[in-house]
Amino acid sequence: MKKWIAFLAVAVVLTSLCGLARAGERLKIGLALPTQQEERWVRDMYAMQGEAEKHNVDLRVAIARNDQSQQNNQIDQLLSQGIKVLILAPHDGEGAAVAVNKAHEDGVKVIAYDRLIMGTDVDVYMSFDNVRVGELMGEWITKRVPKGDYIPMSGAPTDNNAKLFKQGHMVYIQPLIDKGDIKVILDQPVIDWQPANAQKIVENALTLANNKVDAILAPNDGTASGAISALAAQGLAGKVPVTGMDAELSAAQRVVQGTQSITVLKDTRKLGEEAIRLAIRMARGQSIDDAINGSVDNGVQQTPSVLLDAEVVDKDNIDRILIDSGYLTREQVYGSN
Q1: Per residue, what are the HEC states of 43-100?
Q2: Cα(320)–Cα(277) distance, rounded to whole angstroms?
C-alpha cells in the first residue's frame, strides 16, 4: 500500500511538471503567404514577425511562390507542427478551401488574411474594404479623365480581392462607358498579378489603339510598373495617368517622378499586427466579436470580417501619408540629394 501511495505521489509530481512544461511552451501560430516577390507581402511578414516577438509567439512561416498546391502542402506541414491558429493569405482563394477544411479537422482556427477564401467556413477574414479600395481608384481616374480611351486592367482571376477591386472600379467607370464617354481599348485580367503580364496587355492595347490611350487603371503597383514600362517604350510614360495600389517604395518613387499618378496605401503594418493579436485571442478561446466590423460573402457564409481603411496617395499628400507616418523615409522616396 505504501508503495502504491508513493507511486501515485510520483505520478502526480510528474503530471504537474508536464503541465508546467506545456504552460511554458510558446504559442505556435502558422503563417502561410502566397509570395515574397511583391514588396507588400514582405512588409506583412515583417509586421507579423515583429508583433509575434512582442508576445513571445512562435510564428511558423511558409511562402508558396504563387503555387496553391505547394501552399496546401506547406499548410499540412504547419498543422503537423502543432500550430493553434493559421493565418492564411491564399494564392488561390478557391483552392485554399481544402487547407481550411484540414485545419478545422485538426481543431485549428483560420484567419483568411487579406484575400478571401471561398467556399468554406473560414473563421474570420481580415483585410481592407476592397470594394472601397477599388472605388478610390475608379473615382480618382474618372475625375482626372472623364472622357477618353481606357485600359481598365484587373488583377489575378484566382484572387477574390481582384474581383472586389474591379467591382469598385466599375462603380465609376461603367456609367461613363454606358454614356459613351469612355471607350475600352482592352480589358483583361493580369495573371498572377505579374508585371510582365500587365506589360504585355498594355503593349497589345497600344498596338490596337495606335498608341492613343488616355488612362490606364492598373489594379496594383506591380501591374502599374508593367504598364509604365510599356508606355515608356512608346515615349508615353508620364503622359498617361496610371493608378496603382499597395504604396510600394518603387511606386512612391514613380509618383514623385510623375510616371505613376497615384497609389493606394493599405497599411499592412496595422493589418499584420492586428492579425497576430487576433490569432492569440482565438488560440486562447477568447471572443473577437469586438474586433468584427463587417461581413463578406464567400459563397457559403457571410464571413465575419475585420476591415481597415485605405488612402489615396498622390504627389501632393505623399509626404504626409507615407513619410510622416514612418511608412517610408524621405531618403527612400526622394533619394539622398
Answers
A1: HHHHHHHHHHHHCCCEEEEEECCCCHHHHHHHHHHHHHCCCCEEEECCCCCCCCHHHH
A2: 27
Torsion angle, CA of 290/295/299/301, rounded to 10 degrees?
40
| Torsion sign (Cα): 170, 124, 277, 89 | negative
Report the distance separating Cα 127 and Cα 114, nearest Å. Answer: 4
Phi, psi (deg, nearest 5) at residue 248 = -70, 155
Mean pLDDT of the chain: 92
Q: Within a 13 Å sphere around the CA of 137, how many CA atoms are in the beta-carbon half?
A: 37
Regarding beta strands 311-313 and 215-217, do their DSSP bridges make them parallel or antiparallel, or are they unpaired?
unpaired
Q: Would you say 87 and 268 are in contact if contact means Cβ atoms under 8 Å apart? A: no
The pLDDT value recorded for residue 273 is 96
- C-alpha Rg value of the chain to the nearest Å: 23
Q: Mean pLDDT, to the nearest integer, of 310-321?
A: 97
Over residues 130-180, the pLDDT tens digits come to 999 999 999 999 999 999 999 999 999 999 899 999 999 999 999 999 999
Give the closest residue to 64 by CA, choosing from 125, 115, 123, 132.
115
CA 269 to chain centre: 11
What cell was used for 144? 482626372
CA distance 244 to 264: 6
* Distance separating alpha carbons of residues 167 and 155, to the nearest angstrom: 12
**Tell me, what's the pLDDT at 337?**
60
What pLDDT, in 10s, does the model give residues 12-51?
A: 333 333 333 344 689 999 999 999 988 889 999 999 999 9
> Exposure of 143 by Cβ count < 10 A (0-12 exposed, 13-18 middle, 19+ buried)?
exposed
